[in-house]
From TrEMBL:
Top-rank taxon: Bacteria
GO terms assigned for molecular function: carbohydrate binding
Span list, region Disordered: 26-67
Signal peptide boundaries: 1-27
Biased composition, class Low complexity, residue ranges: 26-37, 43-54
Biological source species: Anoxynatronum buryatiense
Protein name: Monosaccharide ABC transporter substrate-binding protein, CUT2 family
Keyword Signal recorded: yes
InterPro entries from the UniProt entry: Bact_Solute-Bind_Prot2, Peripla_BP_I, SBP_2_dom
Alphabetical keyword list: Signal
Length: 392
């Protein structure tokens, strides 16, 4: 980046000098007075904005919030991956607000980015930011979460989110003994398209086990109303998600778990099974169930392999997590950005329908982690250091 940047600056300065010179030059050729007027044109090149625009970042990255370890992880991995890059990149956080997000995108557009990598706070609301970028001829890469409801999304990099939910559901099924096991369902934010994909994957695996009596749903009347339906519509899923959403907020997750346990009878407790959508909410929900005297044991899912949850898994306070190797998502999105900057068409492996268009996409697989494979999946793979944990 320093090399490239400095070279650009020298080049621009050199070009500017030339232009200015040329400007002068026409003056020395009064012969063509009319012409000389023309030479005024050279002001064009003088539009220093062009050169200065290139002093700004070529790639802008916008992430949902710093308040969740997941997205701080992505920032770290981007910085690691770009440490020796020639390209200048700026990373901004939207702090859980779509208006902040739009402001972030507008400020990056003003700085002249050519590629925007954006993980939307709210998939629908982010359409405005994508449209603003498209209007400036900037390529939009949706990152992890899909921007929905607009044509202005060029590419999408993500994990197999349906497989995340299916892995969480399967883990509960594999741990369940006998029948009539109390099942507590929790979900992500309804503004996040991934929350629907996670829930769809989990429902595909859990619904047959509710129908055959292995599980009994405790905390969602909407889910009980639909428990005989193997495949749910988006609206039907939306009704359940609205009832058990955590909004990806640790405190909301805790409050929901407390109110569900308060209204549940002892027969709905004992050895229970909990579908928690990600690690941050899983720790809050697990801690709440752990304090309820009528709960004798619980199996609780997670996602993201956050350091705190990996420690919970080692300590037996959370049962599993779904590891999404953020290094591969960062690598895929940077490769896409570089291809675009080099005028190439990025590689993709499929597409996602965002409600308006089929967005070419690249998808990464996920890995289930529990006490048995923390070492292999997270330490031996170099994702974390053993020294970051105790009792490993
Ligand atoms: C999802 C993301 C998850 C999770 C969640 C909360 O969209 O795929 O990894 O962390 O957001 O921010």
């Amino acid at each position: 980046m320093y090399t490239n940047r400095k070279m650009m600056a020298i080049l621009v300065a050199f070009l500017l000098g030339l232009t200015l010179l040329s400007g002068c030059t026409p003056a020395s050729e009064p012969a063509a007075p009319s012409e000389p007027a023309e030479p005024a044109e050279p002001a064009e090149p003088a539009a220093p904005s062009e050169p200065s625009a290139s002093t700004g970042p070529e790639v802008g990255i916008v992430l949902p919030t710093r308040d969740e370890p997941r997205w701080v992880q992505d920032e770290t991995r981007f910085n690691e991956a770009l440490a020796d890059s020639d390209y200048s990149v700026e990373i901004l956080f939207s702090q859980g607000s779509s208006s902040n997000e739009l402001q972030n995108v507008e400020s990056l557009l003003t700085k002249g980015i050519k590629v925007l990598i954006i993980c939307p706070h709210d998939g629908d609301a982010a359409a405005a930011a994508a449209d603003a970028a498209r209007a400036e001829g900037v390529t939009v890469i949706s990152y992890d979460r899909l921007i929905t409801g607009t044509e202005s999304v060029d590419y999408y990099v993500t994990f197999d989110s349906i497989a995340v939910g299916a892995a969480q559901g399967q883990y509960l099924v594999d741990q369940a003994q006998g029948s009539d096991n109390p099942l507590y369902l929790y979900a992500g934010a309804a503004s996040d398209n991934n929350a629907f994909l996670f829930f769809e994957g989990a429902w595909n695996v859990l619904q047959p086990k509710v129908a055959d009596g292995t599980f009994r749903i405790i905390n969602s009347s909407e889910a009980v109303n639909l428990q005989d339906k193997a495949t749910l519509t988006r609206d039907e899923m939306g009704r359940i998600i609205n009832q058990v959403t955590t909004n990806w907020d640790f405190n909301e997750a805790r409050n929901k778990a407390e109110s569900h346990l308060t209204s549940a009878g002892a027969a709905d407790k004992g050895d229970v099974y909990i579908l928690a959508p990600n690690d941050g909410t899983a720790r809050s929900i697990a801690d709440t169930f752990a304090t309820d005297g009528d709960v004798t044991s619980f199996v609780v899912t997670g996602q993201d392999a956050e350091i705190a949850s990996v420690q919970y898994i080692i300590d037996g306070r959370q049962s599993m997590t779904v590891f999404k190797d953020v290094r591969s998502l960062v690598k895929d999105s940077i490769e896409m950005a570089l291809a675009v900057l080099d005028g190439q068409t990025p590689d993709t492996t499929g597409s996602y329908d965002n409600g308006v268009t089929d967005v070419p996409a690249k998808q990464t697989e996920v890995i289930v982690v529990d006490q048995d494979n923390v070492q292999a999946a997270l330490i031996d793979s170099g994702y974390y250091e053993a020294s970051q944990f105790t009792g490993l």
